[in-house]
Amino acid sequence: MTVFDDPKKAGIPPILQVQNRQPLSPEARAQFDALTAASVSSAGKSAAVLQAEAAADAKKAADAPTKRAVKRERKEAAAGGLTTALPPVGKEAASIIKRERRKRPDPNSPPAIAAVQPAPSGAQTEESVMVKRKTTKAAAGAKKPSTKKGAKVISDPIQKAVAPGAREGSKLALIVGLLTRKEGCTTKDVLDATGWPSVSMPQQVKAAGLKGFRKQKDGKVSRYFAALPAAA
Length: 232
Hints:
Blueprint (H helix, E strand, L loop, with lengths): L25 H54 L10 H14 L22 H18 L27 H9 L5 E2 H8 L6 H8 L2 E8 L2 E7 L5
Antiparallel strand pairs: 1-3, 2-3
């Protein structure tokens, strides 16, 4: 069995095995001495660090009785209703300020709207009185159809005839009365009756729903005729 077959030396490189060791050369010995000196210097630094840590521990042990006495005094003061706590700072102070702001009402927020209580039965509110007044005025105005200044009111009974598209008392109803007369009407008759600056006779006939619209020349003037639709 060879050296390499020794199970105790399995995994050990041959250069590190005992039978293969050789004395160090002068260069290797100098390098080894340098490394040893560096290791000793490093151990000295570690000792200095350990010495500083030991001094810190000693100071902490010396300050321990004083800290315990201060803690005991704070507890006694808190039990007697006094406080020796310092004011909050940093994040703690910011969180306290936020909580206090949430408790206060926002001056920029709209005021709360009070719930409207229903009016008692039979009572008249100001709104209902105003609506009633407006309705009364509207009804009064509907009874007296207004005409523009200078408009000619025609008393011909035919003007009261109701066409499908004309409301009684309206300007369109006046035009219907003029068109359905035996002699018809001219554009001037319509303008005098309505007070309008201009008018389109075909459009008025269409809007009123009249039938048989025709135009007839009477010298230099055109006369217009129309008839009410037959009753159903």
